[in-house]
Specification:
This protein is an alpha+beta fold. The chain has helices at 2-11, 31-34, 101-123; strands at residues 16-24, 41-45, 53-58, 64-69, 76-83. Helices cover 30% and strands 27% of the residues.
């Protein structure tokens, strides 16, 4: 985390990747959306770089814009952002599962909160 922080502060770089976990996806569940596409729709996407899903719309100038929609509740998809170059040390939770980027950042944030609170108790009082 310190290395990632330093890269952001000193180089203005934060290398990330996007991912998606599909727990359940039956294309039949998409049929209500497919039956009524917006005008000039040229395609449908699921889980873009922002984690959204929807239609790709052809604009008059030839460009494409995204029109986001909510997926039916039967479709279970989780999108996530991963930081590249995370520490190689494996931190596990109580169930023995490895942390993903989101959990690692929360773990680091919680650690810093405890550290700062302990410093306040030690040096301010």
């Amino acid at each position: 985390m310190i290395t990632s922080r330093s890269e952001i502060l000193k180089e203005g770089v934060l290398e990330t990747t996007n991912g998606m976990h599909i727990e359940h996806l039956n294309t039949d569940d998409l049929q209500p959306l497919m039956q009524n596409p917006p005008q000039n729709a040229v395609g449908f996407f699921i889980g873009d770089n922002l984690g959204g899903s929807g239609w790709e719309i052809l604009m008059p100038d030839g460009g494409k814009e995204k029109y986001y929609v909510d997926l039916p509740k039967e479709i279970k998809i989780k999108t996530f952002l991963e930081l590249k170059n995370l520490p190689k040390v494996s931190v596990k939770d109580k169930e023995g599962q490895f942390y993903n980027t989101q959990d690692m950042v929360k773990y680091y944030y919680d650690f810093l909160v405890v550290l700062v609170n302990n410093a306040k108790l030690t040096f301010i009082n």
